[in-house]
Amino acid sequence: MAGISIAASQDAQTPTHTAWRALRQNRWGMVAVVFLAVMVLTAALAPLIAPHDPQAQNLLERLAPPSWAGDSDHLLGTDHLGRDVFSRLVFGSRISLLVGVSAAMLAGVIGAVVGLLAGYYGGRLDWILMRLADVQLAFPSILLALAVVAFLGSGLWIVIVVLGLTGWVSYARVVRSEVVSLKTRDFVTEARAIGVGNLTIIRRHLLPNVVAPLATIATLNVASAIVAESALSFLGLGVPTHIPTWGSMLADGQLYLGTSWWIAIFPGLALMLTSLAINITGDAIRDATDPKVYRR
Question: pTM for this one?
């Protein structure tokens, strides 16, 4: 009886519990998740964590080395204008995470709508939407973003919208392939037979089944959006220069790599580690939610 109870308890576990258990068994995945949680808390509590005003200038302390490498009281040193690097790094995490998550969500909504419509209705609509995706893929996304930002001007929300509008194709293709497979399943055929409308079928029967792949793609695309925003800010076409971002910090430090390496090295490390953690988390989520990969 005890064995039957244990087996019944295991069978009663929801897919979410199973995925969470699989994720906890992924050592590097959990390290990445913890790192991202720390980054999110750092961004949320930036005014409490940063010891200095990120925009305050002090030319008397310009190019001061980190506190552990010199006599400065600045943990990670100062830049060419005497601004505290650590404080700018902390506040820059807010912009990077906001842009990355917002752009990925916008691209996910657009891609999900396009993929659902193209996969379910097929025919001419499918052909038009997929050719539109092919046309966008013909242009490198970063060059397209550069062109649009140069035309519209810089700004936080402009960058988010541009990155969202240039990143929907991968979502649309995955969702379309999933819907093409799902729309021939029995539960969709039965819903049609009892008179359920097309939009209701899409909303109640197809959309819930593509949420998992959407979440995986979104997790990976957050890193791409963060890197793209940093590239735009590095070129002076992203977030306005008076707002601290990792890309603008890299741009400020490129001329001082030989003498004041800390100005560029620390934002570069933050960008690399954050992108790496997001990619590892995305891979771990994909493995945890894929029954073909995860084995009990």
Answer: 0.80
